[in-house]
Amino acid sequence: MSEVQEATQLQPIDSSAQQIHKSTHRRNNKDKWTVGRILSHIVLFIVSLTIIVPSIWVLVASFKQQSEFYGSPWTWPKGLFFQNYVDAFIDSGIGQSFLTSVIVTATAMVISMCVALPCSYALARYDFPGKKILQLAVQGLLFVNVNYIVVPIFLLLIGADQVIRQFLPSGFFIDNIFILALVYGATSLPFTIYLLEDFFAAIPKEYEEAAMIDGASLGRTMVQIFFPLAKPAISMAMLFNFLSYWNDYVISMTLLTGDRETVQVGMLNLMSTAHSATNYGRLYAGMVIVAIPVIIFYIIVQKKLLQVSTGGGIK
Questions:
Q1: What does the UniProt entry say about where the protein is found (predicted)?
Q2: 15, 125, 127, 296: most buried by Cβ count inside 10 Å?
């Protein structure tokens, strides 16, 4: 009896000791994670400041009159001088360049997605002869920087213009915004196909089986089931492609040799004009105008980037 009593008396002590040890271990882990989170938040805060402060400074400077730039650069404007935006958009030609970039970017995105979506779906969900070769080709083209091949592309288009010169004296392939959009869309296909293929391959086969039971065709399964499930990946591909098209300078400057120019080439001309005429308010207003479409497009697609793609799909 004494041994049983001693054992029953030791059990609460042992259990309390284990609880103390577990609580101490949890407290130490909590303290460790708290320190890590604090450090990560500090780093993120510093990085955010390096982006937010210059952006706010450009926005504030875009409303200043010319005389206000000769004082302290950190002073707030005396008023909202919207004439800078009018001068940048109309007088400096940014409005025409803006419209050209919108048309080229939208056309290139349509071309890219119309080709990449069915191609990536076929590579991810079906087996056919030559599939491995196509996948290796797509992966290999990821390492080709389009800026390195812009001269061969230009010479190729020049040669095509010489062939059709007898039918079209003014040419067709050079200084054509739709040919520029075609080049944008074609050169972005490797990245877009690779991104979407990886996403399509991760979708369970139960979706296809459920569609087959319901009598859906292959095309309907692709369009009505897989494309909606791939909205996060599609949004990500569209965002990266949009930034690539909108911020391009080298390709557009090479292929558009006439009066038409994209917004990045127009910004370079505006910077040259602003520095020679010391009109900095117009320059900063042009920077804000160029950044507005990027911000708007990110706001549109950012919700799709965070969606759970397969939640509730089988149901």
A1: Cell membrane
A2: 125
